[in-house]
Amino acid sequence: MLSAALAALLLDALLGEPRRAHPLVLVGRLAAWLEQRGNREGGSVLAGGVALLLVILPILSLLVWLLAGLPEWAGWGVQAIGLWLVIGARSLVEHGRAVEQPLMAGDVETARQRVAWIVSRDCEALDDEGIAKAATESVLENGADAIFASLFWFLVAGLPGAVLHRLVNTLDAMWGYRTARFERFGKVAARLDDLLGWLPARLTALSYALCGHFSAALRCWRQQASGCDSPNAGPVMAAGAGALQVRLGGVTRYHGRWKEKPELGEGQQASAHAIGAAIRLIHRSLLLWIAIMMLLLVAGA
């Protein structure tokens, strides 16, 4: 598992995500099709749970069956390539840079358009600071979802574990909104995502602390995380903001409604520089995980 994980990270660093026919895109289309047919008149928790199973069970069953029938060397290759398709470290950095670069150059309109690609909040009226906050929060939170949680579940349960987490996280991103349409239909996906992400989120928060301003990260994690709606995003973003010595959170607008988010972090207000700092924090944290995996690999040799 360790060597396959390291190979997958190398593939991601060299190649990034596939530009065409990414499996998660196909999963997203299936999920959208099921939601359109099963989420009528506000839907129900049961309908959302059934839709989730219809997405997850066939994929996991096929994957387990495939791995069980392969020789060890071929199974290793499938595990490495599969994890490469699941994680998104290079893609996350590219999306962050796409916002950082025009914002640094003073092109606020381009930065506003690009941050709308990666966040669910309303971006039309965001100023420089609002754009920087949105992008920095997205980089920090998705570091947990798109990198470290997938690595964690891969090391615990192989490729089926990583795929399970990524599928659930994708469905939560599509259905897990507290709106009239998704409040009930997306509840199973949201709660299962919270469960699978609980421990990886805290390991991510600890990694951010170890790779940034340690005492500030722990202080912000302890004092601010509980104020967030999400039990997992709270520790990740609070610790990340503290590690970066930057202030995040505050009032923003989602789906036409203003929302008072808790203040996270401490120190300077967010700017374009915070986006780059968050990316560097992701890189340092990933290097920490790689170093630990290599030590475990050598120790087990």
- Strand residue percentage: 5-15%
Q: How many structurally independent domains? A: 1
- String of helices and strands: HHHHHHHHHHEEEH
For the record, give the distance between the C-alpha atoms at the N and C termini, rounded to a whole number.
13 Å
Q: What's the shape?
A: globular
Total strand segments: 3
- Low-pLDDT sequence parts: none
Q: How large, in whole angstroms, is the Cα Rg?
A: 19 Å
Structural class: mainly alpha
Tally of helical segments: 11
Percentage of residues assigned to helices: over 70%
Question: Main sheet, how many strands, which sense, barrel?
Answer: 3 strands, mixed
Mean pLDDT: 91
Strand order of the largest sheet: 2-1-3
Pfam families: CobD_Cbib
Function: Converts cobyric acid to cobinamide by the addition of aminopropanol on the F carboxylic group.
Protein name: Cobalamin biosynthesis protein CobD
GO biological process, one term: cobalamin biosynthetic process
Any overview of this molecule?
This protein has 301 residues and is mainly alpha-helical. Helices cover 72% and strands 7% of the residues. It has a three-stranded mixed beta sheet. Helix 1 crosses helix 4. It is found in: Cell membrane.
